[in-house]
Amino acid sequence: MVPTGGYWFDRERSASREKIRFVLIGTTEPGNIGAAARALKSMGFRRLALVNPVEPWRTDHAIAMSHGAEEVLGGAEVYGSLDAALADCTWVVGTTRRDRRDKARVITPRTWSDQLAKLGPDEEIAILFGPEKTGLTNDDILRCRRIVTAPSPVDYPSLNLAQSVMLLSYESSLALRRVPAAGDGPLLATHDEMERMYDHLDRALRANRFEEKKRRRLLKHLRLILHRAEMRRDDVLSFHTLARRIRGPVSRLVRDEGEERS
Q1: Contact 258, 243 (CB under 8 A)
Q2: Closest of 61, 82, 85 to residue 73, by C-alpha
Q3: What is the pLDDT of residue 97?
Q4: Domain spanning 13-176, CATH architecture
Q5: What is the pLDDT of residues 67-112, one digit of tens each?
Q6: Distances, alpha carbon 177 to alpha carbons 116, 169, 171, in Å
Q7: CB–CB of 164/12 below 8 Å?
Q8: 233-247 vs 191-207: helix axis angle to the nearest 10?
Q9: pLDDT at 19 over 50
Q10: What's CA 132's distance to the chain center, in Å?
Q11: What pLDDT shows up at residue 71?
């Protein structure tokens, strides 16, 4: 067991820690949820989110594995969908070892720490972890701005879920000691704002009878491109304007649900 010391943590950064949620998707073993809660508390984090976990997940084994982090486990936020868990997030980061052709920029945990240190403390951040056996799906990965992969030996590249959570929470904790002061720079667009933008573009292409296969491919690549960029809210409004231009005249009296005014 590696001891930890309170001197690592700056109390003034506690608010920034509350802006980072660790999202476990489809976790199948309650004990892994408990062990993840323990890892988070060890690194000063408290926000644990669960998307469609095994039921029941708050078992005696999960509580035993949390070992002193029962309040983190008991305070876990449970969601029925990933989009609901990410609705107000401005930065979404995924973790996977699998090589995917269509994915965001791949970085190491230390590079993620450097990236996080440059973000303002007002950003809402989610770090995603997939099910134990299958990891994140392609759809999960398309929602990520970055993919974090830890370099490891070729003959044994796998970390278990709790180890992965500990690694990312440690690197995130280091980063928060270097986070800029509040109010530095404009906020990024939230996940919900980005999804409504993609939906508007999708509807605009459908209205112009864009071929189904080409439309889906275009939107997938557009996600990858825009997630590499740091989209601000003003940028999103510009894409809504573009979607309206693609779609053509729209009645001033009837606007589609979710469409933004520029």
Answers
A1: no
A2: 61
A3: 80
A4: 3-Layer(aba) Sandwich (3.40)
A5: 999 999 999 999 999 999 999 999 999 998 876 665 668 999 999 9
A6: 10, 13, 11
A7: no
A8: 10
A9: yes
A10: 17
A11: 95
Taking only the tens place, the pLDDT of each residue in 170-215 is 999 988 877 555 545 567 888 889 889 999 999 988 888 888 888 8
Is residue 77 within 8 Å of 49, Cβ to Cβ? yes
Residue 191's SS3 state is helix
Task: Reply yes or no on whether the pLDDT at 252 is more than 80.
Answer: no
Cα separation, 163 vs 32, whole angstroms: 10
* CA distances in angstroms from 5 to 40, 44, 178, listed in the order given: 14, 11, 18
- C-alpha 13/C-alpha 45 separation (Å) is 11
Domain boundaries, the chain: 13-176, 191-247
* Predicted pLDDT at 249: 60
How far lies 211's CA from each of 170, 200, 202, 215, 239, in Å?
Answer: 46, 16, 11, 6, 20
Contacts of 133 (CB under 8 A, 6+ apart): 28
Could you give the C-alpha distances from 119 to 45, 47, 74, in angstroms and in order?
A: 17, 18, 29
**Amino acid at residue number 93:** V
Contact 236, 258 (CB under 8 A): no
Residue, of 32 and 223, whose pLDDT is higher: 32
CA distances from 143 to 53, 85, 90 (A): 19, 12, 11
